[in-house]
Amino acid sequence: MTHLFINAYFKVVQKDSYQHISDKELLLKFRRDLDNQWLGVILQRYTMLLLGVCMKYLKNEELAKDAVQQVFLKAISELHKYEVDYLKSWLYTIARNHCLMQLRDKTKFVAVSDQTEMIIGNHLEESMLEKEQTLLLLEQSLLELNGPQKDCVTLFYLQKKSYQEIVDLTGFSLLQVKSYIQNGKRNLKILVTQKLQQE
Amino acid sequence: MVDLSNILSNGPEPNEAALKRYLDGTASDAERFAIENQMTDEAFMNDAVEGLQNFKDPQVLQQYVLQLNNDLQKQTNKKKARKLKRGLKEQNWTILAIIAILVLCTLAYAVISMYHR
After folding, report:
1. How far apart are the first and last CA of chain A?
2. Which one of B68, B76, B85 has the shortest CB-CB distance to A51?
3. Cβ–Cβ of B77/A139 closer than 8 Å?
4. Best B44, B91, B95 residue to mutate vs chain A (most A CBs within 10 Å)
5. Distances (CA, A) of A51 to A54, A62, A66, A70, B37
6. Is the ipTM of this complex over 0.90?
7. Chain A interface, mutation test: which of B7, B20, B74, most A Cβ atoms within 10 Å?
8. Of B4, B9, B47, the CB nearest to A52
9. pTM of the entire structure?
10. Hey, how many other C-beta atoms are within 10 angstroms of the C-beta on B85?
11. Class of residue A53 by CB neighbours under 10 A (exposed 0-12, middle 13-18, buried 19+)
12. What pLDDT digit, counting tens, does each position of B94-117 carry?
């Protein structure tokens, strides 16, 4: 009887009360207690994103929903076996592979665009932000980017234009805009890092 | 003056509500920038948004998310309930053992005191 009350209590409070806890902390709790409820809390954070990823590849709402269920089952059955540090990336990889396998099974051709090759976690080090000099180097490096990359990076990051507005302003396709921003940012990072090392 | 640090910072992670507003086209400029910034940095976010935009009816999307979360909760609670049940069963045996020991001690005391008398 007691466990029914505990479960009911968990259901009511869990969605809001764990918002301040990071994935990493929840994963630690899960490993410590071996309690799947912690896992449930983390996975719920990614339901919508996973559904989107599966929908992108499978192009079918029902199949996408089933695929997310499979990803959850895999997470529940496997996460206690391995030490996963970045659950978000792990879930993305599992979902993507699951969809690609499904498509392969059906011998359907899948065009994986360059967009999916975006680097996960290719984040510029926060410490770079602290250096005033970095911003100066960034300004110089921005001028060294090729035309489309410079335009798209400037419009997106500095003028805060939306993807669609950039498409309208430049005449590039949406895919091109995304690619120029992504590659421009990556090239900026490389240029700034090189300049910092030279100094 | 333009803020160059926008290029370096990854910005705050957008929440589900902001993402829904982005899909509906009702997100604020700040929310829209945060989401598109994440899309540039993370393939996960980019694929997710592109896929979510393929849902014809936002109501269906919402229903699916709710359904998936409910199933997930059932799945994760089931194992917890099983564990708790097992725990309670184990506890029952412990309680029974303690009671048996106490009864035996009382009987032993009664027998010894009778023998002394």
Report:
1. 69
2. B68
3. no
4. B44
5. 5, 10, 9, 11, 20
6. no
7. B7
8. B47
9. 0.70
10. 12
11. buried
12. 888 999 999 999 999 999 998 887
